[in-house]
């Protein structure tokens, strides 16, 4: 795993129909990459592809920069009051179910602290 990279897994499926049998053995297979209703065999391969996760990094003039944290503490893909509640709970030492620290260092100080809470409030409420 590298900073700024993500992986995606897709499935490559091939369906096979035997065109010529000799006893119980198939001598000639015909393959299809689109789904068919009647087939004798199927093969599924997983294909893993890596890509640059532009939600976490940005490229500029040949360099890669890590974006500041977004503070999605509950991992639902959006920043909202639930994340604010999670951050308050974390900062005051009260664990909250479904919350992880994630990337909530909004002021890029290297630690999650009260100033990150202030920045998140400003981000959410435009103050």
Polypeptide structure, described:
It is a single chain. By secondary structure, the protein is α+β, with helices and mostly antiparallel strands. Helix content is 18%, strand content 36%. It is built from 2 helices and 5 strands, in the order βββββαα. The protein has helices spanning 81-91, 114-125; strands at 5-22, 25-32, 41-52, 57-60, 63-66. The strands form 2 sheets. It has a 3-stranded antiparallel sheet, with no helix packed on it. A hairpin with a 2-residue loop joins β4 and β5. α1 runs antiparallel to α2. The longest helix is centred in the C-terminal third of the chain and has 12 residues, at 114-125. The two termini are 37 Å apart.
What are the salient characteristics of this protein?
127 residues, two-stranded antiparallel ribbon, 2 helices, 36% strand, elongated
Largest sheet: 3 strands, antiparallel
Quickly count the helices.
2
Name the shape in a single word.
Answer: elongated
In percent, how much strand structure appears in the residues?
35-45%
Mean pLDDT value = 82
Taking all Cα atoms into account, the compactness measure Rg is: 25 Å
Helix-strand topology string: EEEEEHH
Residues in helices, as a percent range: 10-25%
Q: Which regions contain 5 or more consecutive residues with pLDDT less than 50?
A: none
């Amino acid at each position: 795993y590298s900073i700024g990279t993500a992986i995606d897994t897709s499935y490559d499926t091939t369906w096979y129909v035997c065109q010529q049998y000799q006893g119980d053995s198939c001598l000639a297979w015909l393959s299809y990459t689109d789904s068919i209703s009647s087939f004798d065999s199927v093969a599924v391969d997983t294909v893993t592809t890596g890509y640059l996760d532009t939600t976490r990094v940005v490229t500029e003039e040949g360099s890669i920069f890590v974006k500041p944290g977004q503070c999605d503490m509950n991992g639902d893909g959006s920043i909202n009051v639930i994340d604010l509640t999670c951050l308050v709970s974390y900062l005051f030492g009260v664990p909250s179910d479904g919350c992880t620290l994630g990337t909530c260092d909004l002021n890029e100080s290297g630690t999650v602290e009260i100033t990150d809470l202030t920045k998140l409030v400003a981000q959410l409420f435009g103050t």
